[in-house]
Write a structure and sequence with these properties.
Elements lengths: L1 E2 L6 E7 L5 E3 L11 E7 L6 H7 L3 H7 E3 L20 E2 L10 E8 L8 E7 L10 E10 L6 E5 L4 E5 L1 E2 L3 E3 L7 H8 L6 H4 L12 H7 L11 E4 L8 E7 L5 E8 L6 E3 L2 E5 L3 E7 L8 E8 L4
């Protein structure tokens, strides 16, 4: 596959899995022809780029960092092509199913400086925006070429999976870890304003912010009831506050806080009293000696480590 044409002071990159690892989905099945393969780098600091890519599963965030090497015929490998909607590399089954072979030409060093680390971002859909599996791979020798130079990104070399799996025969895609951004993109219709999709927004007007609905698996477009309850009385110190904490969402943290006056709030220890596949049921009891207590749930976004 040829993207662009060789020009003055331009380099060329060949992407090839021939004689290397095939591309497979999360179940180990070879990827179908036509699925998208993005080639480029990520606009992140060199020292932390790979770590950041390994822990970031928000597609919109990753997409905002990504700088494609070339994805359009017109102006391939130049600053003008980055906003284009032209061709990108695809799994094309050469020399066999689950492989990709393609040539990217006319790479300007002014757009992608020589030596810039390169990555393959591979999807299980022809449209990356619709993919539910992907892999991000790089190699020590995968760098943008010198002017008029040539470079091969080969899966027969040592490959590192920042998201995905690597073996001597396969580059495997994975389902990205759950995150608020990806949930929000699917929960709201295309074109919904950022004001409505923000973590602190409450478009349904029921008083439960989007981040809380993400944490509790609720529909942000509908009125909901928070999964909390208060039982017992304060006269004997036996009041119990119960809430749900998600088990499978690495980017959100749920805890309880108590206040005696609705002014000063303190974190309150909780105990897991039951669990299912998705949630822990947590309970807190009123502080010893308190005659009254107000409870609230604090839900915060965190960065997975």
């Amino acid at each position: 596959m040829m993207l662009g044409s060789v020009g003055a002071l331009a380099g060329t990159v060949t992407v090839s899995t021939a004689d290397g690892s095939q591309i497979v989905n999360k179940d180990g099945l070879v990827l179908q022809n036509g699925y998208a393969v993005r080639v480029g780098s990520f606009n992140l600091p060199d020292a932390t780029r790979n770590h950041t890519l390994a822990i970031t599963s928000d597609y919109a965030q990753l997409k905002s960092w990504f700088k494609p090497l070339a994805e359009g015929v017109a102006g391939a490998g130049t600053a003008s092509q980055v906003n284009g909607a032209g061709l990108m590399l695809r799994v094309n089954g050469y020399p066999s199913a689950g492989n990709v072979f393609g040539l990217i030409s006319n790479i300007s060093n002014s757009y992608m400086p020589a030596g810039t680390p390169l990555y393959l971002w591979i999807f299980n859909n022809a449209n990356p925006d619709n993919a539910d599996q992907w892999g991000i791979f790089t190699g020590a020798t995968w760098v943008a070429p010198q002017s008029l130079g040539a470079q091969t990104l080969s899966s027969s070399a040592a490959v590192t999976a920042l998201q995905g799996t690597v073996s001597s025969t396969q580059l495997g895609l994975v389902v990205p870890k759950p995150c608020f951004g990806n949930w929000s993109a699917k929960a709201f219709a295309a074109g919904t304003s950022a004001a409505q999709t923000a973590a602190t927004a409450n478009p349904s007007g029921d008083g439960i912010a989007n981040l809380a609905k993400y944490a509790w698996g609720l529909d942000p477009n509908s009125h909901s009831t928070p999964p909390t309850s208060l039982t017992g009385t304060t006269s004997n110190g036996g009041a119990t506050f119960t809430f749900l904490s998600p088990k499978t969402l690495p980017d959100v943290q749920v805890s309880a806080e108590c206040s005696l006056d609705l002014k000063t709030w303190s974190a309150t220890p909780s105990t897991v009293v039951s669990s299912n596949a998705n949630f822990d049921t947590c309970q807190c009891t009123i502080p010893t000696g308190a005659t009254k207590c107000f409870w609230r749930v604090r839900i915060v976004s965190i960065t997975p480590q």
